[in-house]
Amino acid sequence: MPPATPDVLVLGAGPGGYVAAIRSAQLGLSTVCVEKDKTLGGTCVNVGCIPSKAMLQSSEHYEFLRSHAADHGLVVGDVRVDLPRMLKRKDDVVGQNTKGLEFLFKKNKITWAKGVGTLEPNNVVRVKGDDGTTTSYQAKHVIIATGSEPIALPSLEFDEERVLSNVGALRIPEVPKHLIVIGGGVIGLELGSVWRRLGAKVTVVELFSTILPGMDADVVKEMDRVLRKQGMELRTDARVVGGKRQGDGVRIDVEQGGKMESLEGDYVLVSVGRRPALTGVDAKALGIATGRRGEIIVDDQMRTNVPNVFAIGDAIGGKLLAHKAEEEGVVAAEVIAGRPARMHYRSIPSVVYTWPEVASVGLTEEEVKQSGREYRAGKFPFSANGRARTMGESAGFVKFIADAKTDALLGAHLVGPNVSELVAEVVMAFEFDGSSEDIGITVHAHPTLAETVKEAALGVLGRSIHI
Length: 467
What we know:
Elements: E1 8-11, H1 15-26, E2 31-35, H2 42-47, H3 49-68, H4 83-107, E3 111-114, E4 116-120, E5 124-128, E6 134-138, E7 141-144, E8 148-150, E9 163-164, H5 166-169, E10 178-182, H6 186-197, E11 201-205, H7 217-230, E12 233-235, E13 238-246, E14 249-256, E15 259-265, E16 267-270, E17 274-276, H8 283-286, E18 309-311, H9 322-336, E19 350-352, E20 357-362, H10 365-371, E21 375-381, H11 386-391, E22 397-403, E23 409-416, H12 419-431, H13 436-440, H14 451-460
Parallel strand pairs: 1-2, 1-7, 2-3, 7-18, 9-16, 10-11, 10-16, 11-12
Antiparallel strand pairs: 4-5, 5-6, 8-17, 13-14, 14-15, 19-20, 20-23, 21-22, 22-23
Helix pairs in contact: 1-9, 3-4, 3-6
């Protein structure tokens, strides 16, 4: 039997892959999506974004009841953690999302090719199922969306029992006595926050001089202060030089300030970064150009150097964000359908789902300074916002950076309650090449957290009202 000939074959059903498949089908293209896991959604839905946010939400509720309910006049009795139920809820949330994706595939008549797909020359893809059978496709266009994988340390290979990646850190069967987190970036701080709230001692070991390396200095300073106040131990400028599992725990050797020290914990989370996982894609053999970290090189239409082969998401590097991958998937599908789509990265937000949350878009103040561009900055604290006061949330601020001559927005950085939602307004302004004045003269409902955005924008112009 000759192989099937879909218009589009997508390798991988993570956020980039499943969105690319759905958009392709919406555009009238016959579409096949290959996924080796038993569920759709990739890392994000199954072991990343969705389950971690479920655990963050549950642990936030617990910390509120334990530490803040009394401030609101709420007398709460004995509050305890039912960890098995919490983990089950997390799994149920994941299940709802994966089933939703299966429904969307059926609705859009997308073929889910279950198994490991291997890309061969001339866009031939062979999919080997769990039962050993192989199905072949001759695709007109291929979109590589194979995602990424966590990077292990040579002395601490993942066993997902005591030495954990993000996968194992979401299913620890007990509240750790001492969780050591190697890496003070987004994943480390989010998952460290979950287990700290539930009662674990959490020590974060970061190689660089600050947590959240690469973020705006004001954001880093505020988050360092808040997380330490919450009880998280942060060790920066600290290098892990060795480590091993020993019995029911792990020991790591740390060099800090010229001194060596050993830290012992019952679990260690290694979150030092991720790398492209080109499962089933031998880029070198196929002649697909890659960068120094193994990422596939594409243009702004997501085309590789090989005709009719596209790549998106973590497989092409850059910021490893689900929403970035999704938009790249849309662009690839629309280009294949003959539309003049192109990918733009200036207005892509980044979020850290700790509490308070962190959100940003555009350049940091340090990057603007380095460019030599004249600028003005405006900053407004949540402590001066009426709605934040009613919530008892005084930490954080909103900060804008704008061109000194044109008032064009260059960067925005938010730390505070629900800023993952507030940043959408800012991104919209960036997308329309807006100015700080555009936001500042826009009427915002009162009392809302969003008023901090307006006030910070007015602050760029020296016109903040409530400070």
